[in-house]
Amino acid sequence: MNWLATLPARLDRWPDGWVRLLGRLAVGLVFWLSGQTKVEGLVLDPIHATVELGWPRLSPAVVDLFRDEYRLPLLPPELAATLAATGEHLLPLMLVLGLGTRFAALGLLAMTAVIQFLVYPGAFPTHGTWAAVLLWLVLRGPGPLALDGWIAARTAAR
């Protein structure tokens, strides 16, 4: 049989745990690094291997950014900036660890929708890519290379 004809069947058998991990890391890092731009006092940049430990606090310029550029409806800029900075740190950490993955992915998917529709509506190619990965993780879960699976296995063993 032709190898090209058997390729789809062979690809279907490929374990997708590594692909899910890649998706969790890629999207998680995008949001984590965005969150890092909103705080001072704590720098954890895995891309540039930069670590500065300290107590994180909201950058004063971020509130201005939410007030002057982002202008989210219904939320005061101080609250919106705090929620964004918190969400962009907590949810990506959960996503990368595979802990509460579906919840974290759903939260980041909601943030992506807000960014797309209220902040940067012209950036659909980027936001659409994030949304596709996040929606896939919501629907299919984190895969076997995640704390969610380890916790579920330990719980089922009891």
From TrEMBL:
Chief location of this protein within or outside the cell: membrane
Domain of life: Bacteria
Membrane-spanning residues: 103-124, 130-153
Location of the protein in the cell: Cell membrane
Keywords noted in UniProt: Cell membrane, Membrane, Transmembrane, Transmembrane helix
Pfam families: DoxX
Cited InterPro entries: DoxX, DoxX-like_oxidoreductase
Any one GO CC term of the record: plasma membrane
Protein topology in the membrane: Multi-pass membrane protein
Annotated family: Belongs to the DoxX family.
Protein name: Integral membrane protein, rhomboid family
Species, as recorded: Piscinibacter sakaiensis
